[in-house]
Amino acid sequence: MSFERIKEKLNILADAAKYDISCSSSGSKRANKGGLGNSDGVGICHSYTEDGRCVSLLKILLTNHCIFDCAYCVTRKSNDIKRAAFKIEEVVSLTMNFYRRNYIEGLFLSSGIFKSPDHTMERLVQVAKKLRLEENFNGYIHLKSIPGASDELMQEAGLYADRLSVNIEIPTISGLKLLAPDKKHEDFIKPMEAVKNAIQIYQSEKKIIRSTPKYAPAGQSTQMIVGATGESDRDVMYSAAYYYQKFKMKRVYYSGYIPVTNDSRLPALGSPVPLLRENRLYQTDWLLRFYGFDIRELLNEQHQNLDLDVDPKLSWALRNQNIFPLDINKADKQLLARVPGIGMKSVHKIIEARKFRNLSWEHLKKIGIALNRAKYFITCNSKSFERRDLSPDQIKGFILQNSASKFRDDYGIQLKLFTP
Amino acid sequence: MKTIMSLGYDGTYEGFLTCVFQTFEQNLEVHTITLENLMQASMFGKNEVVITDLEKANRVQNALKKRIAASGTRQLYWVFLSEKEGIEMDLLSYIKLVFKDEKFSTKDFGNHIVLKINQIAKQVHREKHRMEAFVRFKLTHDEIFFATIEPDFNVLPIILPHFEARYADQKWIIYDLNRNFGIFYNLLKTEFINLDFHETFSIDRNNPSIYKASEIEFQKLWQEYFSSTNIKSRKNMKLHLQHVPKRYWKYLTEKSTWQN
Predict the structure, then answer these.
(1) Rounded CA gap, A26 and A38, in Å?
(2) Contact A142/A109 with Cβ under 8 angstroms?
(3) First CA to last CA across chain A, in angstroms?
(4) What angle separates helix A408-418 from helix A392-401, to the nearest 10 degrees?
(5) Where are the domains of chain B?
(6) Containing structural domain, residue A376
(7) pLDDT at A420 (0 to 100)
(8) Which residues of B touch A15 (CB under 8 A)?
């Protein structure tokens, strides 16, 4: 193959694929039977770009030719950009050669929609099939589910892919109408439904017949663009909670909108990417998935948007001071997980360690909890603890004074209110 | 009063376990355990070189397994591989606790030595994971995928199973330049090897006398990919450096400039 031509295509088609943020390579299990590659459940980030994002998969589009004209998308048909398309063999060769050099965990293949959704999906499936059946490749494959693709193709896709995903992109239906008038909400939902059902069927068959093939063992995920259509954090996270519940999503990703076009319906080119907001949304997502929070506790009619100056767990704790302080040596696991400054790993360590002795501040510090936040919410085996009757605003002020955040400039004005 | 002892051993894990055996069997008061060639004459106490004995080492290992299960003994091995100064004595105190304290648990994180061993094991695990991520194979003219590393800890023995499982259909070598040994998989099994690098011999990634022409092209493609997949408007060098500390850059095809 011509390396020069491939290099040019790679430049165009990796550049166009980079706004898809999922880079997860975990959660699958595929043993290597004399061929190349495996996945043992743990993902590996082989590198990190200068924007701090992990590089785990070769993330490319098959082509950036597209028949749709979604306003938020860089490859929309009205955009005047260079177009390119990989041949199936080229994607296979790049994947194999990168994998052999330990650059990647596998392939993440997406595509602009050319001719028709089925035509596009079929090509994606062909790449995965060739890798699995002809090259004996057992690394990770993430395929995009193309909105509007048939159930039969989605069935087949899951037999070769570890993960399937369809990006919902715009969290609200009204936003979708505004920015992608030729796409229908149902077109996104249909492949999700097909994949969810297939996963359930294969899993229950596997219980009876052990030789049942794997179907999308790493599940499915989706992505939402944040900050393109004026939606609230509540809109975003309620949608996310819905997809987690309804479609058993492994992950929902949040992508702060990066202006790629001058369109009066969207933030102007050069507007800053809402990185802090994106960060708060991910923190909220973690609280839902690992910390036992219900989304209605964090966002509701009274709190439609997350605080920018403090993380959502601290924000929740300040609104619910009545349940604190908790005794570290007695409190339930579920309650410990709600203390600001204590992560799940520390919760497990505390639960184990306190079986042997009552824990003091010294123990907690060594275990690695963030005392500068936690100390206002807990007591332990010590006579000294926060005795003052502090208001939520006072606590917030103290915590902000004693912490550093790379986002401080973004909320510097608000911060001054709390500095005594 | 018991004599205070300094034990020397050959640097192997079995050698260390033999020292542990001897400590218990002879009820020694051990002050230091070091590599035999680093032993210093001491004003107080006595020096003794312990000869590695696989049978004794196994007895300690099996006794440990009964008390703290396979995961516990693996943790001790990993901590040993950290090669931190004085780590042998920390391990010995830990092992004494295991055998002497009825209520001993590997999860008693309020105990400082248990917590310390746990935290060092985590550091070693992190280095192991980094090496599994940062190894960059380069294809040589004799069809071997070759990589060099200089890990902070001696993780080569524990990354071996990962690479063996994954790269089963290609020959490969991963060589630890600091410790001067490597692992070579020849399609059948993996062996430990030593290589002599001549001073004039350059293993630079773009040396055409060692690597195939296509190898150098794939390196360029990878660099192209790496720069195309970056989003400039989200640049965050602090986060970047946190994930890829500078000391690892030299292995990373995508991080080093082409002309060197």
Answers:
(1) 11
(2) yes
(3) 67
(4) 130
(5) 4-126, 135-251
(6) 312-418
(7) 39
(8) 228-229
